[in-house]
């Protein structure tokens, strides 16, 4: 019965590794381009300037 434990642990490690790969791919897919980040920062600055909060 000891090999069942090893097989179970190997399966759990495989599931965890697959999850890590999926999360990394999702982060990369959702990452912003430098132009998008710059545009968002400009929008925030303009919003702060219009409200006068500095």
Short structural summary:
With 54 residues, this protein is an all-alpha fold. The chain is built from 2 helices and no strands. Helices cover 87% and strands 0% of the residues.
Topology:
Layout lengths: L1 H29 L3 H18 L3
Which structural traits does this protein have?
about 55 residues
Description:
This protein is rod-shaped. It has one domain. The mean pLDDT is 88. The protein is built from two helices and no strands. The chain is an all-alpha fold and 54 residues long.
Q: Give the class from helix and strand content and strand pairing.
A: mainly alpha
Shape: rod-shaped
Terminus-to-terminus distance: 67 Å
Q: Count of helical segments? A: 2
Helix content: over 70%
Integer average pLDDT? 88
Order of SSEs: HH
The main β sheet shows up as: none
Low-pLDDT runs of 5+ residues are none
Instruction: Tell me the β content.
Output: under 5%
Tally of distinct domains: 1
What's the alpha carbon Rg, rounded to whole Å? 23 Å
**Overall number of strands:** 0
